[in-house]
Amino acid sequence: MLDGLTDSQEGDDCVSDANNAFGPVGIERDPLMVAIERDEARRRLGLLSERERRYLSLQLLGFTYEEISPQTGASRRTVERQLLRAKRKVRLHDQA
């Protein structure tokens, strides 16, 4: 028991958290929709070059352009262009 919760309540919270991974807390997500969204995200990442995926993943981890630059050996401007290109590709494909 943790903070007044029984063992079964703790387990229920884990299941609930998994269903809410992409949505607001307290609202059950349809497992089929979660799977569809996951597959769509993978498909969109497949549109990007390896370089664009690397830069985007670093940005998603919270790194700034200035922090990404030395890690990749690219200038700050190159990092900025690669991220803009990656975001544009994903956005344009979303509108099609």
Characterize the structure shown.
This protein has 96 residues and is mainly α. It folds into two domains: 45 residues, no CATH class; 48 residues, Arc Repressor Mutant, subunit A (Orthogonal Bundle), CATH 1.10.10. The protein is built from five helices and no strands. Helix 3 packs across helix 5 and helix 4 packs across helix 5. The longest helix has 20 residues.
Task: Name some characteristics of this structure.
5 helices; Arc Repressor Mutant, subunit A; mainly alpha; disordered N terminus; 96 residues; elongated
Q: Which structural class do the helices and strands define?
A: mainly alpha
Number of strands: 0
**Shape verdict:** elongated
Proportion of strand residues: under 5%
CATH fold label of the largest domain: Arc Repressor Mutant, subunit A
- Our count of domains comes out at 2
Overall average pLDDT: 79
Quick rundown:
The chain has 96 residues and is mainly α.
SSE blueprint and pairings:
Elements: H1 7-19, H2 31-45, H3 50-60, H4 65-72, H5 76-95
Helix pairs in contact: 3-5, 4-5
